[in-house]
Amino acid sequence: MLSHETFAVGALTLGLLLTTNAEAASPRQLLALDPALGQLPESVAVDAHGSFYVSMGSQVAKIDSSYAVSTLANLPLPAGGFATGVKLAPNGRLFVAGGAFDPALDASYVFSVDASSGSVNVVTALDPDGFPNDMAFDDAGTTYLTDSFLGVVWKLTPGGVASIWASDPLLLGNPNAAVLGLPFGANGIVFDRAKRNLFIANTDLGAILEIRVRPNGTPGDVEVFAAGPELVGADGLAMDRSGTLYVAVNAQDQLATVDKHGRIAVLASGGLLDGPSSLAFGVAPCDQHSLFFTNFAISRASGAKLGIPNPGLLSLRVRTPGLRLP
User: How far is 254 from 116, CA to CA, in rounded Å?
Assistant: First the structure.
């Protein structure tokens, strides 16, 4: 769920904004990665065995429960293309999105990767002008995929047939906040517990959007669920069993929460955090109160921010377990 350093400062402001640290959060670094080796972890998924799957460049890396790193798969992306969102699908395979900043590279794809063998299949090719980013799945195995450049949500059938499911100005980025002329809109995406509503982060707007899935499968209106300066630069999302959203606020080196009433709280900021981009709750019995996340560290690695980049895998102890995915 790649995002940029500069964002709109005039974000939408809805809901009661809270700045207290409700859980006295203290992130812990589990694994430091090496930016000199291109180890900038953008997205993370975790399985029931405590293994992590991370997108780094055009690769999917596997991090086992002892935090040993290996290459699981090399994606057939052109030079300049890179993997974005990584999610475990209902069929047990990894789904991985790919994109590029240059549409001429034709890098907009969704792949499936066997989590054991690392074999890669192309699920679908998408509009090269877009930027496929993050995914969520319904119980039937349908994929909902955000596109940060086009400002749409794609729908992929289990057979890989793609169509635009939702399109709305609220899903678009803000051209006035763009870096390199690339506004960044719809990003992280997650279902609620009943799989009736999708929540989507808009990076440039600093907003969490909500789309109801009607009984016939069509989208309801795109609405602003929460917005505020604390969410400007929002990237990945995760939801716990109480309906609280956890937000990786990449551009501000912080984590935030949004409760089921739309109230925002800053959970952790600065310190070990360096461009947090993706979140995943543990699913093994011993990990269900652990929220895992990646430090993407792209801003410091690229020189857009001062300081030494600190990419890695981190965790945070939380009170309420996460929703079981997919």
Answer: 33
Cα(156)–Cα(114) distance, integer angstroms: 19
Query: Could you say which DSSP state residue 11 is in?
Result: -
- What distance in Å separates the CA atoms of residue 75 and residue 100, rounded to the nearest whole number? 13
126, part of any domain: yes
DSSP track, 166-200: EE-GGGS--GGG-BTTB---EEEEEE-TTSSEEEE
Spell out the residues 6+ positions from residue 285 whose beta carbon is closer than 8 angstroms to its own. none
pLDDT tens, position by position, 203-232: 999 999 999 999 999 999 999 999 999 999
How many domains does the chain contain in total? 1
- Domain span at 190: 17-317
Is residue 11 domain-resident? no
Phi, psi of 171 (to 5 degrees): -85, -10
Asked if the structure places residue 12 within a domain, the reply is no
Task: State the Cα–Cα distance between residues 15 and 263, nearest whole angstrom.
Answer: 6
Residues written for the chain: 326
Longest dimension (CA), the chain: 50
Q: 232-265, pLDDT tens digit by residue?
A: 999 999 999 999 999 999 999 999 999 999 999 9
CB 230 within 8 A of CB 206: yes
In a domain, 278, yes or no: yes
204: domain CATH number?
A: 2.120.10.30
Distance CA 35, CA 212 (A): 40
Q: How far is CA 201 from the centre of its chain?
A: 9
How many whole angstroms separate alpha carbon 108 and alpha carbon 82? 9
Give tens-digit pLDDT for 102-126.
999 999 999 999 999 999 999 999 9
